[in-house]
Amino acid sequence: MDLLNSFKKAALTVFALMISILSYAQTGKISGTVTDKKTGETLIGVTVKIKGTTKGMATDVDGKYTISGLSSQKYSLVYQYVGYTTKEIGDIDVSDSKITTLNVILEEANSQNLSEVVIKGSFKKESINALYAQQKSSISISSGISAEIIQKSPDRNTSEVLKRVSGASIQNNKFVVIRGLADRYNTSMLNNSLLPSTEPDKKAFAFDIIPANLIDNLVVYKTASPDLPGDFAGGIIQVITKDVPDQSYLNFSTSWGYNTQSTFKDFTSNERSGSEYLGLIDQDRKFPSSFPKSFQTYNPLPAQDKVNFSKLLPNAYAENSYKALPSQNHQITWGNRKDFENGGSLGSVVSLSYRNSQSINPVQRNDYQNDFRDIYYDYNDTQNVFNTSIGVLANITYKKGRNKFGFKNLLNNVLEDIYTQRSGFNTNIDANLRFNNADQTRKTIYNTQMEGEHQFGKADQKINWNLSYSNINRNQPDLRSIYYRQVGGSNSNVYSLVDRNSRRFFADMKEDNFSALANYSLPFSLFKKKSIFKTGFLSMYKTRDFKARIFNYLYNTSGSASYDEQILSQPKDVIFKPSNMSTSGGFYLNDFTSNTDSYQAQTLLNAGYLMLDNHFGENSRLTWGARIEHYHQNIDYIDLSGTSKNFNQTFFDVLPSVNYTYSINEKSNFRVSGSRTVSRPELRELAPFTFYDFVSQTSTLGNPMLKRGTINNADLRYEIYPKAGEAITFSLFYKDFNNAIEQTLDEGGTPERRQVNYFNIGKAYSFGAEVDIRKRFDFINETGFFNDLTFFANLSYIKSEVKLSTIGLDARPLQGQSPYLVNAGLQYANEPTGLTFTGLYNRVGQRIAFVGNTLIPNIWENSRDVVDFQISKKLLKNKAELKLNAGDIFNQKSIFYLNMDDKTNFDSKVDKQYVTSRFGTNFTISFSYNLSFAK
Question: Whole-model pTM?
Answer without folding.
Answer: 0.88
